[in-house]
Every structure is written in structure tokens, then in C-alpha cells.
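Appendix B, Record 12. Input sequence as logged:
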Amino acid sequence: MSKIKKIYGLCIVIATATMLTTTSALAFTITTGGTLLTGGSPTVDQGYTTSVVGATVIDFNSSLSLPSGYTGGAVKYGSSGGNWASPPDDDSNFYTVGPGAGQSSPGTLTLGSLNQYFGFYGGSPDTYNSIEFWRDDTQLEVITGTELATAALVNPNGDQTVGVYWNIWADSISERFNKVIFVSTSNAFETDNHAFSAVPIPAAVWLFGCGLIGLIGFSKRKKAA
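Logged structural output:
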């Protein structure tokens, strides 16, 4: 397996690479940033949502039951010490996965079509969090909590004051996915305002994210044996 990871800031690339024997290549790109939701119905702050035009958004606000397409995990409100904590600036329902205490891990979102973009608001990223992208029974990519934190220039230490909106693109149509899996081996991985779309990665992101959805990006290339 070979991975090439690039952290983008202000259109200046700082790159590290590890090279091993490989075959076919996969690539996903991550940027951070979204639109803060205040007010609404109910009139509460709802964290950040996607800035990608036309994306379908799941906000979990209608019920504490899992929305259609989800298995595993749980919809919660507020915080429960040692179990889950609402992301910063988010006083609405959210989705959480973890090994116990009224939730479970993994949690899976099965989509009805192939998509090239997925976004979500998350709080307190940690090393034991990860997100997986699948097409049917084929795993395309695993992004760890450490990699999510790196993209946002924060530490993966579970700091509950940290909230980030992550935007993740498959770099080509051959890497489109129809299943997203949230994993947390400890309590917990809390997210909200999941968004998905068949939109391809914007050209501006290829130019290191200048002027688009924040100034930070993270490109991950994986070659699977």
C-alpha cells in the first residue's frame, strides 16, 4: 500500500510521502469549512453545514430515530458524560457512533446512488475515529481521525471545543461511492449535517483550495494491492 498525503494552506503545498509497492490507485481529497446554521426550526444553533450547492443534507432534526438509510449508531441530543457530546455550536440532534451507552459502532449510511462528494460536521476528532467509503462490497478508502485532524490543522485529542466541517471528494468517477461507514472504537464519534452529491471535485480544490470552502485541504492517495 502506498499513500501520498498533501496538506494545503494558502495555496502553498507542504507534502510528505511514503512509497511502497502498489497496484491500482485511488484518491480522495479533503477540505474544511462550511456555513454556520443559526436559528432555523427549532430555533437553535445547528452547527455547520455544507457550502456545496445542490448537495442533499441530512440534519437529524426531525426525530431521535435513525433516518432512512442509516443502520447502527444513534441520534442523540445534548451531552452524556463519558458517552457522547454535542459538537460545538450545535444545540440540535446529531449522529453518534461508539461501542456502548445507547449507541453502537460502526454506523452505516447506505446511499441510493453513486456519489462523489460527502460532507459532515464533527466535533472533538480523535485517533479512534475513522470514516470509510465503499462502493457496494468494495472498500475504497479509510480516513482516520488523525487524518481528519491533520486536514483541519487541529490535534486528534478529543478536544470538545473543536468543531470542523469536512468536505470529502472522490477525485474521479471511478472512485464514486454508495456507502459511508462511521467507526469509533471508543466513545464517541459525533457528527451532524451529513451531505452528499454526485458533484465532481471543483477545479479550485485542485488549485489547493484558494478561495473555496476554506483555505485548508488534504489530499490522500492510496494504492491498494
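The two ends are 6 Å apart (CA to CA).
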